[in-house]
Amino acid sequence: MHEREDEATFVIEGTLSFKIGDVLFDAGPGAFVWAPRGIPHTFANRTDERVRVLGTIVPAGLEGMFQEQIAHFA
């Protein structure tokens, strides 16, 4: 959950499963998913197919979290 950032995801290819708050759903090509700040959310590729997305987080600054995760799991 982000306290100050909103997250938008546009699905380009494949199907991505999302959970935003208590709502669980799948989003396929062309879907736009909005995860507002303050609402717990997660997503996963639960298929064997490739998924490509375009993600935007506003305002900027959350990219440090992704770098920490990469270092942790590398």
Structure explained in plain terms:
The chain has 74 residues and is mainly beta. It has one domain: Jelly Rolls (Sandwich). 15% of the residues lie in helices and 45% in strands. The protein is built from one helix and six strands; from the N terminus they run ββββββα. Strands 4-1-6 form a three-stranded antiparallel β-sheet, with no helix packed on it. It has a three-stranded antiparallel β-sheet with strand order 3-2-5, with no helix packed on it. A hairpin with a 2-residue loop joins strand 2 and strand 3. The longest helix is centred in the last third of the chain and has 11 residues. The model has no long low-confidence stretch (mean pLDDT 92).
Label this structure with key terms.
74 residues; three-stranded antiparallel sheet; Jelly Rolls; 15% helix; globular; mainly beta; 45% strand; single chain; 6 strands
Widest sheet: strand order? Answer: 4-1-6
Mean pLDDT: 92
Count the strands?
Answer: 6
Listing every helix as H and every strand as E from the N terminus to the C terminus, the arrangement reads EEEEEEH
Report the radius of gyration as a whole number of Å: 13 Å
Number of helices: 1
Terminal Cα span: 23 Å
CATH class: Mainly Beta
Structural class: mainly beta
The CATH superfamily name is Jelly Rolls
Indicate the overall shape: globular
Helical fraction equals 10-25%
Could you tell me the CATH topology label. Answer: Jelly Rolls
Q: Largest sheet, if any?
A: 3 strands, antiparallel
Beta-strand content bin: 35-45%
Question: In the CATH classification, which architecture applies?
Answer: Sandwich
Provide the low-confidence segments as ranges.
none
Provide the domain count: 1
